Amino acid sequence: MQFYNVKKREKVEIPEDQLKKTIYKGKGGQVRYAARAVDNDGTNLTRFLSKDDYDALDAPEE
Q1: Which stretches within 4-50 are classed as H helix?
Q2: CA distance linking residue 37 with residue 27, whole number of Å
Q3: Which of 7, 23, 26, 57 is deepest in the core (most CB within 10 A)?
Q4: What is the tens place of the pLDDT at every residue in 6-16?
Q5: CA gap 14, 47 in Å, rounded
Q6: What residues does 35 pair with on adjacent strands?
Q7: Stretch (H or E) spanning 55
Q8: What are the CB-based long-range contacts (under 8 Å, 24+) for 7-14?
Q9: What Cα–Cα distance (Å) separates residue 41 from each residue in 17, 22, 45, 48, 51?
């Protein structure tokens, strides 16, 4: 999956076996779905997904 690394200022490709799924719940009841990973330089990466993409992703949940 492709992420944007802010420190490197470029897109990086992270293999699916290194991803984790996360659900963020806001105070107003908003729910956001995301995939998280860590790049080789230690940068935490987050990519927000649609519910369909989140459900289709074969990764463990955090």
Answers
A1: none
A2: 25
A3: 57
A4: 999 999 999 99
A5: 11
A6: 21, 47
A7: helix 51-56
A8: 7/41, 7/43, 8/39, 8/41, 8/43, 12/39, 12/45, 14/39, 14/45
A9: 18, 21, 11, 21, 29
